[in-house]
Amino acid sequence: MTTPNPIVPTSPASPADPANPIAGTAQIFDQGYRRYEGERTGVAGAMSSLVRATWRQALGLKRQTRNKLIPFMIIVFAFVPAVVFVGLAALLPDDFVNELPTYVEYYGFVVAAIYLFAAFVSSAILCEDRRTGMLGVYLSSPLDRRTYLAGKAIAFCTLLFIVTILPILLMLLAYSLQNAGPDGFGNWIETFAKIVLSGVAFGLVFAFPSLAVASTTDRWVVATATNAAMFPASAVVTDLLVGEGNLTPHLRLLNIPGLARELTFRIFNEPQASLWSRFDNPTWTLVLAALGWILVSGGIVWANYRRLLVRR
Amino acid sequence: MTPLLALYRVLSRNLLSRGRLTLIGMLGVLSILVAFAINRGNDGDPGLDAGVTFVWFLGLGLVVPIISLVLASSSFGDLVEDETLVYLWHRPSPRWMLAVAAWASSTTVAIPATVIPLSVAGYIASGFDLKVFGASALAITVATAAYSSLFVFLGLLVRRALIWGLMYLFIWELFVARVGNGAATLSIITYPSSILASIADVELAQADRSVLTGILVPLIVSAIAMALTTWRLDNVDVA
Amino acid sequence: MTDLSIPQSSNGIAPVTASAPPAPAAWPPADATVVAYDVSKSFKGVVAVSNVSIAITPGVTGLLGPNGAGKSTLLRMLSGQIKPSSGSVWVAGGDPRSDAEARGRIGLVPQQDGVFEGEKAIDIVSLAATLSGLDQPTERAAHALGLVEMDPGLERPVGTFSKGMRQRVKIAQALVHDPIVLMMDEPLNGLDPKQRRQMIELFHGLGDAGKTVLVSSHVLDEVERFGSLVIVIAKGRLAAQGDFRAIRGLMDNQPLRVRIQCTAGRQLGAALVASGSVMGCRVDSDSLIEVTTNDIRQLRRELAPFARHYGGRLEEVIPLDDDLESVFRYLVGDR
Amino acid sequence: MPPGAGVNVPNSETVPLVSARNVSKSYGSHVALSDVSFDIEPGITGVLGANGAGKTTILGMIIGLHKSDGGQLQVLEQDPWFAGSDVRMRLGYAPEHHTLPPTMQAADFVQHVAELHGLPKTEAITRSSDALWLVGLGEERFRPMGSMSTGQRQRVKLAQAIAHDPAIVMLDEPTDGLDPVQRDAMLDLIRDVAERFGISVILSSHLLEEVEQICDGVVIIGEGRTLASGSLDSLVNSEATGVVVEVDADDRAVAAFAAQLQARGASVTIHQRRVTIEGSDDSVFDLARDVCADEGLGIVRMSRRRLSLEDVFLESLG
Predict the structure, then answer these.
(1) pTM of the model as a whole
(2) ipTM of this predicted complex?
(3) pLDDT by residue (tens digit) across A81-95?
(4) Which of B112, C37, D262, D264 has a 20 to 30 A CA-CA distance from C176?
(5) In terms of DSSP bridges, do strands D70-75 and D18-27 run parallel, antiparallel, or are they unpaired?
(6) In angstroms, what separates the C-alpha of D45 from chain A's closest C-alpha?
(7) Interface contact D116, partner A, CB < 8 A
(8) CATH topology for C34-248?
(9) Within 13 Å of residue A299, how many CA atoms lie on the same side as its CB?
């Protein structure tokens, strides 16, 4: 389609024309905008374009440097401990390597970075589209509200997995190279799977509530601030209620960071490290609570978007 | 209706968006819940210290400045953002009225959201001590009024007032002011904390001023902030 | 209208005296209600308006100019919304920036769409009335809404209004205190053709009642209906002020072209050339000619008798470049 | 691509691009459309209507955002409600508002919208660039859109609407906020898109002068009904007879001129200095000429009487 398109002259001069010896040695090409007759990719193509555009929007890619600043700073925060531990593992004698944090303990170092990332990215990808009228552009493309939200959610979750899975995989890789990783291939694969699974669980528990908050407003500053305050607040308040107020420990299921961490502990089957967020609930209630968070938050998002009058 | 009242009315209605009301309501409910928790944790001990510390730390330290910031900074901030300030600004009514209306509206919207839940929460957390209730109510009213005046000015001065305000709160009011005495004199939180400490007769860090000082200084701060806001209104370029 | 001028500076070649206003004796006119004296405005070193001196008298005046030429900036300086970097503004008795009373005599329709989204139309307009210190603000507001043909009883918040309805609320709040001077930045934007016509009639009525109505617009057909007085801003400077037909008359180096359709076109053209009223004549067909003239009035008078003389039926006489559009294009340097 | 393939106007001799038959739509008790019927043929069609007359609703229905309560709506031979994605893939849409993602570069934005409408990435990249060159923003295409002027944004909006080569492009107030010079340039561009590339244009505008300038067809919606639709020529040329003369004279002379005309049996109306002489045959031209010559009046302007679109519009609103 992009090859030059020669214009056939209406009455072409014959190359053999003796009176015009240079005829036929030149051509003028049709350039620039033209019709498109090729295949169209349909809704699937639109979704994939939406997901890629959302990644760029969240990370400030293909934009000026100041738009990249916040997301990349947070990502760096999430990776710094991993890099430090990898460095320590390389430098320290083998005996000490066992003293380094385990994979699941890593979340304790980066939970703040993760919820800041969730808070920032969720508002960046939802609020901006409403404020700039981009949502109207999407809804006049093959996408509709459902596919739009699905694309946004996919893009958001995959982004979150960058900070919930990758640093820990980095640790796994580095520890393995230091011979401090899991013994045997089977164990290695199992650990790998656990890391991915816990990263997914950890990410999803943060992802949906922050999307729900972002769906209520079109000002990203407000959404980011509310989200950033909501996660620690849910931890502090439930801890106070259960710890100080001796209320039912099931209230801890409302503690988003706590729930997320506890899920990872259960996946790795390790004793919990935290002293004050002690979960005694059986695992199935934790899973149920996580699903509840996801469903309720997803419902809030859908309710907000279903009613939304789109400015077109 | 006088111009001042009309301004007050439109500005308060502008502040009462669904999102803000939800936020305020949630914070109120949370404070009372936490207060109950503290009360239960006391197990019947006289909880004067616990109640005052709760009001001081969570109330004056966090809830009051943040609610004041959210409301007061958007009082002009929203108008600048929506480019509607001109409809109030261009009218011949005096500019100080506009400043005072903005302050009064954000304070009166904030007070039910701060004073009521936090004083009640302090009352509960202290094991139902009326002195704590009174002290909290006065201290929080003063703090809300003073913070609101500052943030009304900030909302007119800068575009991203929420972020600048949070930075000011966390760096100055909640950190530096609790470290040194000199800095404490120059921060708002010292004065309502002093009211709370004096009336309830409890020791709190950097809260050794008299009740009178505790009331007067925030009032003077509010007056200065209003004067600055009026000056800024006179000189601002309005879209 | 005698007050018209094309400052040399409009062509970018500023003579030494370009910043000085016209001779003080004649300027500003005694009945001027809006006067700007040598105002300039720059934003962070970028000049938006330079050295504009204008006086505006009662009646409807159209404010024109290309996008980015400083039109809105000038209007905002005249209304007092922004402070000139240099120069001074006087409107109806004072500087609108510092003098609240003078400001109170202005009705302002700003360019932006924003209104108080959560309020009802009647509340917005009566708020404006209250702030202007009027008694019975609700009655005044209902009256003003009636002027723009809106129902004062409308219960919906303005946030749900279409652009055209918001625009009329904006106009109503500007009219509610019966101002001496009305300044409106693109007030017809978003209105449908019927509403446009109503508003133009309203503006005419206000102008006839002795108000000074300053309206900026991008739509030249619309401005022609406001009346013939215009102010043209180009490249941050005052390019022209006055009756646009008179401005056209000052454009000496731009002869007028007229297209004529007449069954005896050829003979008519020859006769017009012979009489000296046209400088050139292009014959497009036997019945269609295009003539170029510097003496349009003589040409107009000769058309009917000459056509009759040759027994030609005159079917069409269309001046090609005496409208506001060509004046505009000339002044903003795009021909 | 074979030579000549670029000229591929959809064959719509028989089937219109958009056809509405008795379409109705209510929101609760509010009737937005009661009975709308029209056909939109290839070329440029202006959709006009008073504010709140249901114009936005019908445009929303064409892109499949609302379901009609009754009647039949066909866009590109499909029902847009049931085939929303397919229809929207072949539509281009430029919204009315001027806000565009401020941090995004124009080229990325146009590319993204082209991809959304089904173009593979490599195609989208080249066509984004082509479209931006076409609208005259070639050199500006890597600028963030937040730094662009209204005129440039309007061009970006056009570019994103046509980059994926739609069959129909819908432009909502495409000249809003443009100055006269920019407006003419934009209208030329739209003409170009329609004529050179065979993309049919549906545009909504409040400026009848510009609709008159570029549209081939017109649909007028009022109070939820179609008030008029058809080709522009058929609408403005119906029943218009007579001649309009503008004379170079003061009001009194104009009145005298009119009186003379009436004395010779003509039926005359005066609007400012413009005198309309009604009459079904062309002798009215001679009459106007003769009276002007006798009275020594200069003729400023003279033309066959023709309804303006504004007349049609206002009349159809009743």
Answers:
(1) 0.87
(2) 0.86
(3) 998 888 888 887 777
(4) C37
(5) antiparallel
(6) 19
(7) yes
(8) Rossmann fold (3.40.50)
(9) 6
